[in-house]
Amino acid sequence: MIPLLVLVLVFALVPQAAAHPEPPRPAKLQRSVSNQAIKNFTLTDQRGQPFESAKLKGKIVVVGFGYTTCPDVCPLITAAMRHVQDGLSSSEKSDVYFVTITTDPEIDNPQVLAGYAKRYAVDLTHWSFLTGNEALLKPVWQSFGVKATRKARGLVDHTALTAVVDRAGVMKFAYHGTAPEPKTILADVRELLKGAAKP
Amino acid sequence: MLLSCLLLAGCGRNPRMDALYAQRCINCHGPSGQGDGPIAASLPVKPPDFRQTVETKSNAQIRRIIAHGRGTMPAFEPALKPSEINDMLQMVRFLSREGRDLQWWEKYDTLVAAHCSVPWEAVLGVDDPPEAKKP
Fold first, then answer.
1. Count of CB atoms within 10 A of residue A154's CB?
2. Which residue from B minimizes the CA distance to A73?
3. What is the reported pTM?
């Protein structure tokens, strides 16, 4: 009986031979100059309060799309946006707003978004994390050219987009890919702050 | 004895754990948990090598990190069932033991390892917070 127990213990301790799945490689970042007017929208922020995009007029807005349980591109997008926010001077900060729009309303309620924001330690006086029901979110996604397809609970295939919107509500720069470069975004934001965006 | 055998026989790594790991963890933690996934280098903080960190953590500590996130690591509790979080935990334990030499195994307390490998949640029930158990 004892040898049997030892055998079972060994079986339990030694990991079963399993082929390691190969992770997908990250897509290369693509920056493009855009001139896409963004339609007004009303969503809900991480405090559970209504958020109207109209209040962003007059500010440069850095927008990121993602969801809180995202295991690949979203942490990089949010981290890059946080770097951009950190890179702004105090005078620039008052003219630049950050918005993260969920692509998974099933999971990302205001409470979940608030926890996500806290983990990234962002300055929430100039950053909102937005959610809503799918009927409200879909037109916003479409306005930015974002597609989102639910694969499983907490797992969504979506366009990896970070964008910069000018003071008039027009998307001027779009960065597609897993790792937006904070320096590039910061330079584009500063061009818009000066009032002359150069491609 | 029969119960012990049944419990221990259920401790092996299984395809469900591999699938969860491939879907939710591999991009940062890498195929063998060494913190070398394809996006790891782009993260603000390099993911840990499980072989250096997991051994010193209890199951409750690891489960808490998986459930509530840490830094840029997502909080999976809103999306996953407790049983799936336990599968992730077991997978992390398996990966943390891979590639060890005999000397490491000799130092490692096999009884502790056996204890950790038993899916206690499956036997005793998942330790959900008290309010979650209320009808």
1. 24
2. B39
3. 0.79
pLDDT at A13: 44
CB nearest to A25's CB, from B18, B38, B79: B38
CA A57/CA A114 separation, integer angstroms: 24
Q: Convert B6-30 to b/e letters by CB count within 10 Å (16 or more is b).
A: ebbeebbbeeebbebbbbbbbbbbb
**pLDDT band, very low/low/confident/very high, at B108 (cuts 50, 70, 90):** low
Q: Angle at Cα A120 formed by Cα B81 and Cα A138, nearest 5°?
A: 65
Among candidates B9, B25, B78 on the partner chain, residue whose Cβ is nearest the Cβ of A107:
B78
**Residue at B12: amino acid letter:** G
Q: How many residues does chain A have?
A: 199
Write the DSSP assignment of A87-104 as a string of letters. HS-HHHHTTEEEEEEES-
**Residue B33 contacts residue B92 (beta carbons within 8 Å):** yes
CATH architecture of A35-194: 3-Layer(aba) Sandwich (3.40)
Q: Where are the domains of chain A?
A: 35-194
Residue of A nearest to B116 (CA): A13
Q: Which residues of chain A have pLDDT under 50?
A: 1, 5-21, 23-26, 197-199
Residues 68-127 of B with CB under 8 A from A: 68-76, 78-80, 94-95, 97-98, 110, 113-114, 117-118
Single-letter amino acid, residue B5: C
Whether B84 has a pLDDT exceeding 60, the answer reads yes
Q: Which residues are registered as beta bridge partners of A164?
A: A62, A173
Contact A23 B12 (CB under 8 A): no
**Hey, what domains does chain B have and what are their CATH numbers?**
13-123 (1.10.760.10)
pLDDT, tens digit, for every residue of B13-41? Answer: 789 999 999 999 999 999 999 999 999 99
